User: Fold PAS domain-containing protein from Lacibacter sediminis.
Amino acid sequence: MKQEPFDLEFNRIFKWLGNDSAPSQLKFELDLYKKLWNFFLIGDSYYFIINHHNLQFEFVSKEVEEVMGYLPSEFDIRFMNDKLHPDDRSWFLAIGTCIVDFFSQLPVDKLLKYKVRYDIRFKKKNGDYARILYQGVLLEHDASGKFLRTLSVHSDITYLKQEGNPVLSFIGSEGEPSYLDVVSNKPFVESKEEFTKREKQVLKLLIEGKPSKEISGLLKISKQTVDTHRKNMLHKKHLSNTGELIGKAIRSGWI
Assistant:
């Protein structure tokens, strides 16, 4: 089954965080982790642990049913994708990219000293949207710094924030600095005028997953012309391949 561009970018972010190393056997010490990190629980909350080796949820607390209406068995990695508010999808990718960039620049010995915090909207089982405060910490990583297991908390803060854009922060512990409101404006916005009208038409069809031959038929131009438009867009944006072009276009709202 062909994946949508959003799904491809979503999976790219989560797969970057993990690798082929398997984490150790899970030990349930949630109370200890909660105390160590002093999670900011300002609303109804639930906890979950992600195994980044296989992108599976190893544990979901029963409170997810009270907060979101879903059974723990229904809550999985696809929830993070399928239940996102449509207006927050580009934000979610931008936040994910910022998280990857931030942790990829940290020394390995500082990875466990940061908590990630941001807010985003998810659909509850009754169809309403809740603004969720996400807080997450790394529980385990391999020698190279790739994520193996994370502990996350979702808190319903709808009653506190009903409007406004998502905000991302990195909270340091053990003397490490914090970085607040990292995402404060519409992310990755670039000028659309760099592309010609025809290039935008080609880009839109590329995002829809159509190959060059099909695009040439739809636009009534040669396949060579389609490939030329694609190369021109890559050159203008200093990108190396079509996948990067599609991902950047989605994050930046070029189409």
